[in-house]
Amino acid sequence: MSQLIWIVEDEVALAGLVKAVVEAEGFSGEILTSGEEVLKRLAERRPALILLDIMMPGLNGFQVLERLKANTDTQAIPVVVVSTLVGREYVERAKRLGALDFFTKPFEPEQLVQAVKRILVATP
Q: Based on the structure, what is the number of domains in the chain?
């Protein structure tokens, strides 16, 4: 069974593109469109990795990341941020909260795939 990656993105077209990219590499992609949906779905299953947008209605990605990393049941789930936010302060904030990597939209799909592979190989 392939490793499950949650693509947390409220922009449907981009979410579909990212899903296609990760699935082309043999991963299983699932699109979630809000931070609230992430927290709700964690009760049902755990992904191998979360690709997390920051700018979403309701709970934003920083809030989701804070909650994931504050909970001992979910803190080990690797998170990569994919956002339109530009600036070192956003990257530093995401990494301080526990994100393993940060990609600014638009991004090179191959670079994202390489980061996902690197993280999932390093994560037991």
A: 1
